[in-house]
Amino acid sequence: MQTKDFDYDLPKERIAQWPTPEREQSRLLVIHRSDGRIVHRQFPDLVDYLHRGDALVLNDSRVIPARLRGYKPKSGGLVEVLLLEENGLNDWWVMLRPGKRVRAGTKIIFRNAAEESPAVQAVVREKNSEGHCRLEFSGLHNISDDLASLGEVPLPPYIERIPGMGNVNDRERYQTVYAQAPGSVAAPTAGLHFTHEMLGRIRSRGIRICPVTLHVGLGTFAPVKAAKLEEHAMHEERYEISAETAQAVNETKTAGGRVLAVGTTAVRVLETVAQSHNGQLDSSAGRTRIFIYPPYDFKVADALLTNFHLPQSTLLMLVSAFASPKELRGREMILSAYREAIRERYRFFSYGDAMLIL
């Protein structure tokens, strides 16, 4: 398939700039795969679609305050740093902006939220073929421990904020209520709608809640530059699934229950592990480059809760594959649902509304 096949027109005003006042106030578009039927509901109605014996699989990765601001002492030029992946103590791969002319040996001094310049600096040690830089931080024991004061929420570029003036509410709302393991530079957004109270209602109905971890990296949202999907290479992302979750999901499938994956990241963990264990799950940890697009035969998930995704993104391609497993027609089913969502004034992307595919 061609990357351009997954394009669509989205009015700018449909891109959600702010979360709803309360998490559960999002809308829910429900699409039935069997006949393409669409139903418009509210997010709390998700509970009506879950049954005793089902399992809800959540990505519990925690978003870190990965955006740092500093300056180059030689020129005074401002620099924005987005942490991508930790290699070791105070050793990170990052994206620099502007970074085109940055070379090894360049020094950066960082500012904290109060615009003060503490004794925290970094040196560029190398630059890779993708233009990312490897920084060595100094002036503190561990940069990871100081991100709360130095860093900002790494909101995606389509959410507009004044540089350095991110809303304090973003620290809470661009994070799931069940986030545990720190490591993501973008939120697993399908889970942003849940509250502790709603999760309690789900548990009370005899539905298992099963965490997995996939630390969302820049690669998840990187544009597909190749004309043909099979020529696109995904970036690696770290994942982990516990023995408890693997056993719970396997038991759910054996007993005839359904597995509902919350978000594309949860799907990618399930499919990565199932591919290497003959369709079953087992405790596992590692890195995945799995790229799911039509046609694809899903091994684990029976339903998918997701947000509305960017045109030509790998996330939209995965959702299209899920809409019609092992077939190509899911693309048009999803794009048709997106067109209806636009007509019905749904809110798109990270802070937007949700879609349930059954």
Compact overview of the structure:
The protein is an alpha/beta fold and 358 residues long. It has seven helices and 17 strands. The protein folds into two domains: 3-63 and 171-357, QueA-like (3-Layer(aba) Sandwich); 67-150, QueA-like (Thrombin, subunit H, Beta Barrel), CATH 2.40.10.240.
CATH topology of the largest domain: QueA-like
Number of distinct beta strands = 17
Structural class: alpha/beta
Whole-number total of structural domains: 2
Mean pLDDT: 94
SS strand fraction: 25-35%
Name given to the CATH homologous superfamily of the largest domain:
QueA-like
Order of helices and strands: EEEEEEEEEEHHEHEEHEHEEHHE
CATH architecture of the largest domain: 3-Layer(aba) Sandwich
- Radius of gyration, Cα only, in angstroms? 21 Å
Name of the CATH class of the largest domain: Alpha Beta
Sequence of strands across the biggest β-sheet: 2-1-17-16-14-3-12-13-15
- Tally of separate helices: 7
* Spatial gap, N to C terminus: 24 Å
**pLDDT < 50 runs, ≥5 residues:** none
Describe this structure in words.
With 358 residues, the chain is α/β, with parallel strands linked by helices. It folds into two domains: 248 residues, QueA-like, CATH 3.40.1780; 84 residues, Thrombin, subunit H, CATH 2.40.10. It has seven helices and 17 strands. Strands 2-1-17-16-14-3-12-13-15 form a nine-stranded mixed β-sheet. α6 crosses α7. The radius of gyration is 21 Å and the shape is globular.
